[in-house]
Amino acid sequence: MGDPAEALLALCRFPPAGTAVDLAVSGGPDSVGLWLLAQAAGLEVHVHHVDHGLRAASVRDAALVAEMGQRLATPVTIHRTAVAPGPNLEARARAARRGLLPAGALTGHTMDDLAETVLVNLLRGAGVDGLSPLVGDPTKPLIGLRRAALRTFVEAAGVPFAHDESNDDLRFVRNRVRHQVVPLLDAVAERDVVPLLARQAGLLAEERRWLDEVAADARALGEVDCRELTSWPRARLRRWLRERLRLDEERHPPSSAEVERAIAVVEGHARAAELGGGHRLSRSGRRLRLDEGG
């Protein structure tokens, strides 16, 4: 038998051998698999582990990652932060993690994560961007791999990994999608739907890139006559406004509802539209004006 990593690496999108990379490693099988495959790909690896302090076992997980660093001769940095229990726990934990990890850190998201994210975003009413997540993201080199195959690889390597019991908690939407919705869709479709969802996301990502090219226009919001804007196809107008109305520091785009309110202003059906963060879009004559909230 050949190198067990070889077949998996053929489905990964790692940078060239010798590249220095940071890895986000929780200690679970996916991130441990990322670690092993990154080393097999000849990368210079530095591992980062974030302890959110949310679980009694988090100290154990951090110790496991540190021990693996010694075993695999890899530098490991343990980051500790405090995320208080409460509403939007997952989102707040992700934000804390992003604030601690180096920019561009690679993560162990798989094709299964991609499919689950598509479904979660669909339930939230996402558009083309939300239905084509992770695709083409250089920090997600494993989205061509299935979660089960990655776990089998890690188990065969004899490397220990942690189990995060919060991944089994059905109070969280993602976990319900993973443990209930995807198996139900498999049963209804009488086939494995994960590759279908991943392929659909890839197709939508290609169309999204084309739409970005079509909607590209360097002019600022107030530089374009609303008569011209109303002559554009609705998809182009929506895309252009979406980019012009990115308002917060992380440049998150406005919601679909906010974009539709903005279109009503462009078309003259409304004098103004209230946007997130206290921002307000209005129309003066045939020009748009954005007033930023305090």
Can you offer a commentary on this structure?
By secondary structure, this protein is mostly helical. The protein folds into 3 domains: 4-109 and 145-168, HUPs (Rossmann fold), CATH 3.40.50.620; 111-133 and 173-216, no CATH class; 218-291, Uridine Diphospho-n-acetylenolpyruvylglucosamine Reductase, domain 3 (2-Layer Sandwich), CATH 3.30.465. Helix content is 46%, strand content 11%. It is built from 11 helices and 6 strands. Helix 8 (194-215) crosses helix 10 (234-244). It is elongated. The termini are far apart.
Summarize the structure.
Helix content is 46%, strand content 11%. With 294 residues, the protein is mainly alpha-helical. Strands 1-2-3 form a three-stranded parallel β-sheet, with helices on one face. The chain has a three-stranded antiparallel β-sheet with strand order 4-5-6, with helices on one face.
